Amino acid sequence: MKHKQLKQFPNNFLWGASTSAYQVEGAWDEDGKGPSIIDVKRIPEGTTDYKVASDHYHRYKEDVKLMAEMGFKAYRFSIAWTRIFPEGTGEINQKGIDFYNNLINELLKYNIEPIVTMYHFDMPLALDKKGGWGNRETVDAFETYAKVLFENYGDRVKYWLTINEQNMMILHGSAILGKDGENMEKELYQQNHHMLVAQAKVMKLCHEMLPQAKIGPAPNISYIYPATSKPDDVLAAQNFSAIRNWLYLDVAVFGRYNNLAWSFLEERDAIPSIQEGDMEILKAGKPDFIAFNYYSTKTVEAALDGENVKNDTGDQELAVGEAGVYKGHTNPNLPKNDFGWEIDPVGFRTTLREIYSRYHLPLIITENGLGAFDTLEEGDIVNDPYRINYLRAHMEQIQLAITDGVDVFGYCPWSAIDLISTHQGSKKRYGFIFVNRDEFDLKDLRRVRKQSFYWYQNVIKTNGAEL
Ligand code: BGP
Q1: Ligand 1, closest atom to CA 339?
Q2: 25, 106, 113, 165: which one is catalytic?
Q3: What is the tally of structural domains in the chain?
Q4: Ligand 1 centroid to residue 23 C-alpha, Å
Q5: Hey, how many other C-beta atoms are within 10 angstroms of the C-beta on 215?
Q6: Is 466 part of any domain?
């Protein structure tokens, strides 16, 4: 649909950017922090670990000052569970509480709205040893952890996100480090169910304890294209969409499992065991908004029964496959970034429209961005026009979606500052702020404003009128 006149971004639009604790903070074992699964995970050869990352733990004041200089209205970050509860449960670590108190206060000093993710991949190791999300007791541990966050930060934090990209953890198995059950899928979807129950409990708790606050899920949502107009490809796209997207949002919003996803689980003998009362818990937890991460659309075709289509590299943006259900397909109409991820701004608008028409809840984008190899030039200059082009193209689509009538209240691209990527170390950069370090040489970790920093500053200043 072509609009004659575009609607403006709303006046109080939350322009900002995102990070996650383990990717940016460093200080992995300082001030009483306990180990998480990230601290013991197998690091791909040639890439750094997360021990120092961007050293944000020690430099948060400088970082927040730079965010304020860009004009941020919001900053989305995650709290490391193991800073608050080193063992995941039991003793509270006051120094961990203090760190996030200081960070939140620093943000508010500049009128930057904190948007807090409670869980971003970093399961406490102590809980993982007892089964992680596979153990029902982790649901209670998560609820206790959430309660402590609400008690300590609820007077200042108005926006809460429950679990980051639960769907990617399940689809790519990243929630189950080092486990080898008989039926991996059954185990995975049991973990999934526990996370959904935990999320619902925490959303309810949030509303009881903090009536002014808002809370929502934060999955990675992508519109799924059929590879062709062949009816079987269209069915495959619906299948993948149900398994990848709607399973998660249907439970979060409606408190019920998506029928297609459920029938997929039945086929695979992967139905989770559901305790008495669970469905009531799922129904009782209601989100106030949907936060979602978007990097690209996915394209799939029909997959024959028995065909080997899994091909999972572990990369969250490369479509996988399921025999008899769907098969990943490269979209010939889309360019790719340096890491093989397709770039599809128009698909962003499609995704925004689709989510809104299904759920009619306000939307905020909590990740979107371009991973690239940036170069620090002489005189502390980083030219990243490719990043500006990517972000601009996506912002234009948000404006079109807003004009379509979609209620979007914020945009927090990935990432505020360079940090360590999930799979490709520190060389894959996303930030508006360059961090001077290499994969294994920490150099001086100095902060350098990129070209995109100045560009985004003007976008925010003009509230998106100048993109
Ligand atoms: C999302 C994760 C982020 C971040 C981002 C970029 O899936 O929520 O934590 O890592 O993807 O991915 P990558 O670091 O693999 O480039």
Answers
A1: 16
A2: 165
A3: 1
A4: 9
A5: 27
A6: no
CA 329 to chain centre: 24
165 flagged as catalytic: yes
Assigned domain for 9 exists? no
The preferred substitution site among 171, 421, 430 for testing ligand 1, maximizing ligand atoms within 8 Å of CB, is 421
The string of DSSP codes covering 368-429 is: ----B----BTTTB---HHHHHHHHHHHHHHHHHHHTT--EEEE--B-SB----SSSTTTSB
**pLDDT digits 0-9 by tens, 361-398:** 999 999 999 999 999 999 999 999 999 999 999 999 99
Burial 329-339 (b: 16+ CB within 10 A, else e): bebeebeebeb
pTM of this structure: 0.97
Q: What is the pLDDT of residues 265-296, one digit of tens each?
A: 999 999 999 999 999 999 999 999 999 999 99
Task: Spell 364-401 as b/e; 16+ CB within 10 A means b.
Answer: bbbbbbbbbebeeeeeeebebebbbebbbebbbbbbbb
- Tell me the CA distances in angstroms from 159 to 43, 178, 279, 309, 335, one per residue in order: 32, 33, 26, 39, 35
How far, in Å, is the centroid of ligand 1 from the Cα of 231? 33
- Is 205 domain-assigned? yes
Question: Which domain, by its residues, includes 181?
Answer: 14-461
CATH classification of the domain holding 332: 3.20.20.80
Tell whether 2 is covered by a domain: no
Please tell me the distance between residue 421's alpha carbon and the centre of ligand 1 in angstroms: 6
Query: What string of H, E and C letters represents the secondary structure of 61-73?
Result: HHHHHHHHHHCCC
